[in-house]
Amino acid sequence: xxxxxxVIEQVIKQNPNEPEFHQAVKEVLESLRPVITAxxxxxxxxxxxxxxxNPERQIKFRVPWIxxxxxxxxxxxxxVQFNSAIGPYKGGIRLHPSVNLGIIKFLSFEQIFKxxxxxxxxxxxxxxxxxxxxxxSDREIMAFCQSFMTELCKYIGADTDVPAGDIGTGAREIGxxxxxxxxxxxxxxxxxxxKGLSYGGSLVRTEAxxxxxxxxxxxxxxxxxxxxxxxxxxxxxxxxVATYAIEKAHQLGAKVVTCSDSTxxxxxPDGIDLNALKEIKEVKRERLTEYKKYRPKSEYHxxxxxxxxxxxxxxxxxxxxxxxLEDAKALVANGVMAVAEGANMPTTPDAMDYLLANGVLFxxxxxANAGGVATSALEMSQNxxxxxxxxxxxxxxxxxxxxxxxxxxxxxxxxxGYEGNYVVGANIAGFEKVVEAMNAQGIV
Length: 444
Ligand code: NDP
Description:
Elements: H1 3-14, H2 19-31, H3 33-38, H4 40-45, H5 48-53, E1 57-66, E2 72-83, E3 89-95, H6 101-117, E4 123-129, H7 138-152, E5 161-164, H8 171-185, H9 208-223, E6 232-235, H10 240-251, E7 255-260, E8 264-267, H11 274-283, H12 291-294, E9 299-302, E10 313-315, H13 325-333, E11 338-340, H14 349-357, E12 361-363, H15 365-368, H16 370-385, H17 391-415, H18 422-440
The structure holds NADPH dihydro-nicotinamide-adenine-dinucleotide phosphate (NDP).
């Protein structure tokens, strides 16, 4: 059996009941076959892949907190510190009832390669909890965040592991966690990114993932002799990534006609009204059912359906496995030209294969949504310098990073005879950088 197949089999055996982790490992290792086959003997002897698929450390802990009625709840907290070959662990904290160890491991594993692609010195990590922030009061959110950080603070630090936001963790949660870290550890340091501007946050961090997604799509289209201007776009999600992807798409002259949340989706033929969306989601924290009150001509549908709309570009920005084979077929039938992942692993493997086989330009999440973590790394740099860079400077750096990511993955794909396959290109480009650092540091 080939080395890749051996390792995939081991991962499935040693990590039972973690389908998302198996999916992420398979997707990466399958596409690395050309590089691994060329170095099979050396990699086997060094157990390189075994070291790559086993986290350096995984932490699981109890998070007790008290609700407004005096009832005690116990959630589970996780932090998976996967790979620190190129820098301190870096990756967000997800707060969602679906969170379990397998999901955090898949996200942390993907993060290794994504972070390598940014060209910045950050390793891969991810954390979270099965806590559901929906419907909780501010005090309950604070109680949870303080309890979560009381344990997590033992394992993180500005030079060891620097978490950030993700699903369910926005500026409010980062603020409560930062406050508790500072209170317990007694240091004011850049231990979290996505902080508020008044206490060490970076301009553009809020917008970074969505803006970065559009910058890389813009560069890809430019290299294919096209532009974003006048394109019709479907976006899923209505959170941080979706909101700022819509904002930048509109600034670049495109029209985004959909958005969604976990209960339903909106179709607005005149283009999503961003002020209304921000008011509903960021200010009032309501459901998308409210959108019709602001835009009577729009449609609200229960359940899934964003990918049935006829568009030129699709940007999945909600969660993993939200775009399946049936959705891919609908998109292709409607003439979609490009799909770029704002979320992490939103496209199922069979859907991805179908899109690629039908000539759709496909940008995988580890490249397409790398703008968020890249700007987090810029926040770390500003914290170390104890200085704040202006919006224009950070935005220009973000744009350049995304342009570089595109050219790196394009080059890596071409080098191994997979021109135009950015999934292979992203995995190879990220892998080569991490492996070089791992080899230089010996067997650790
Ligand atoms: P948010 O919590 O801000 O928004 C998530 C959105 O997705 C919400 O609209 C939410 O709906 C929807 N959603 C969540 N879970 C589901 C589900 N199971 N089914 C359908 N819809 C769902 O998160 P972000 O925007 O920060 O993150 C979105 C994705 O982007 C994630 O995959 C994340 O890992 C990835 N990402 C985020 C980065 C960042 O900087 N924030 C960086 C890189 C990647 P509802 O409001 O109903 O919960």
